[in-house]
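=== Structure Prediction Worksheet ===
Name of assembly: unnamed complex
Input type: mixed (protein and possibly other molecules)
Chain count: two
Listed entries:
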Amino acid sequence: MNVSRTVGWLLWCYPASWRARYGKELEALIMDMSGGRRVSWRVRADVLGAAGRERIRSVGLSGDRPGPDRVRGGAVLVMWAWALFVLGGAVLGKSTEHWQSVMPAGSGHATAGVAFTTLIAAAVVAGLLVLVAIGLTLPSLLVFLRGGGWRQIRARILSAVGLTAVLVAATIGLAVWAHGLTPPARNGHDTAYGIAFLAWAALCAATLLAWTAAAASTARHLDLTAWTLRLQARLAAAATGAMGVITVATAVWWAVVASASPAALTGTPAVSHQSAFVWQLLVAMAIMLCAIGLGGLGARRAARALPCLERG
Amino acid sequence: MNSRSRTDEAAAGRSNDPTILILTSLAEGEKHGYALLQDIEGFAGVRLGPGTLYGAIGRLEERGLIEAVEGSGRRRPYRLSGAGAQALRCALAEMRTIVEEGSARLTRRPATVAGAFAVTA
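=== Predicted Assembly ===
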């Protein structure tokens, strides 16, 4: 890779606003330092680290930002955590869709049922909390759009809309295909369909992340009142708490089903020596735990900035 | 490391702070990024990376401690603002206090402690 391409790639790691202000100067400096030869790994690591710090600063997650920016940054981080959590939940949902019909009655079925219902209820509550948090920003969003803000968020929104259109078309195509397949073929026996399903799942994840990125980018531009920010901080804490409840309920459900009927974990008919450590559940749990970690950081960040809002 | 004495190490944490190094460098006159890096390496023996330098420049400019000067091409020079000069004076005074206090305490240090340290070393 030649020097200018390397520098271009390094600069791309910075937030657009930072790049617009300092990008050309930093590019000139790296060129001067490299003297036309390849950019050293030390310089690359330094620039990448600095770009990461600027990205964190740009979303209000570093310590030297005003209170409103910190609340906003914390709430946006919880929104990202929720998006990640939804991905983990989707993996969990896919692998557990038939557990009730496979698990024999008795032997912990009721306990597993209560845990699963708690999981679903907490997921609904968390989803509603996120929707309320987004809804609270709508008046500010309207003001922002009336003030000509559309240009600043257009690129992200349009890419999310484009991905959504592709997803809708892919979903229709996949549904038509699935309609002509037998249940076993839909559940892993048809390789081509399995690959298409994985591609569709990746598209779902990309669309969810694109909308989250669009929402996060938009939130940065909104002028939110202190009242809205206080509510955002509390909703962020509540949503993180709901994610915690979902994770605990999942762990309880997993433990009960694993001890009574491990085959039900994958929703497949009973097989001998089915392990309790199903990879789909392990992946789902790992994603959910990462999301809770992120959500906890965001909620704490927002809560700690609340006294600054009170003073302001 | 021409003007750096051993006692300055007492305030090393502070003196390695890129923002202090940049303010110190600009106290002598305006400089662009590459000149800043070379000057800082010359007087402090610290090799800042370009990302670290521009991260610190951004923060300093945001706080009004330095100002960009219209430069030729893409090498834009920076200069110290009035607030920046004041901030540097405060930071240096703080560091001087630490250096003087540390030096005084080392002078007052009991000989037995020094002897014991020498034996264990």
